[in-house]
Amino acid sequence: GAGVSQSPSNKVTEKGKDVELRCDPISGHTALYWYRQSLGQGLEFLIYFQGNSAPDKSGLPSDRFSAERTGGSVSTLTIQRTQQEDSAVYLCASSLDRGRVSEQFFGPGTRLTVL
Amino acid sequence: AQKVTQAQTEISVVEKEDVTLDCVYETRDTTYYLFWYKQPPSGELVFLIRRNSFDEQNEISGRYSWNFQKSTSSFNFTITASQVVDSAVYFCALHNTNAGKSTFGDGTTLTVKP
Hints:
The complex is a heterodimer of chains A (115) and B (114).
Chain A: E1 5-7, E2 10-13, E3 19-24, E4 31-37, E5 43-50, E6 65-69, E7 75-79, E8 88-95, E9 105-106, E10 110-114
Parallel strand pairs in A: 2-10
Antiparallel strand pairs in A: 1-3, 3-7, 4-5, 4-8, 6-7, 8-9, 8-10
Chain B: E1 3-5, E2 10-14, E3 19-21, E4 24-26, E5 32-39, E6 46-52, E7 59-61, E8 64-69, E9 74-79, E10 88-96, E11 102-104, E12 108-113
Parallel strand pairs in B: 2-12
Antiparallel strand pairs in B: 1-4, 3-9, 5-6, 5-10, 7-8, 8-9, 10-11, 10-12
């Protein structure tokens, strides 16, 4: 399919370990978002990439979180020294956003469990 | 700062009933977009509708309709003749066109019973 894909779908890690979550957006989409969804909660904005502009990192909860987007396409969200409160579903979305704001297409998410 | 409030945490209706999901937002921007998304039990969020701040025309799409009232900062969503397949979590979202940031409400869990 041509949708947003994320890997891995599930990740179990031990407290203190680093994890990398990957997002492949829809081809041609200029905007890419990362969100965190805790159990039964809404979506918490983490970071936003638009084209080649500097990303909006205002939502990152701590300096343990970082993200990059290579070549304007694939993005990786890295969480260093994971804590139990990092356990959540991490969602990636992309949108076309050329001249007007368009809807976001979401991936299936990565469920992160920190033991 | 932006804020989206979905006061109804959970709603339960019987099939064929009409149901309205409320969404109230706060923003200082004059230009913004509002969205509704559906998250079925399978988990993936699906786009339902987009509305920009200059377009207060209400919209109807099949059994779905949306009422945007800028004066009360509300963007409510009504499902007419609800069906079991409408059971999902529904999110209202506000998009800041300047910063590109999207703010989501906490969602309303709708359960439609047969």
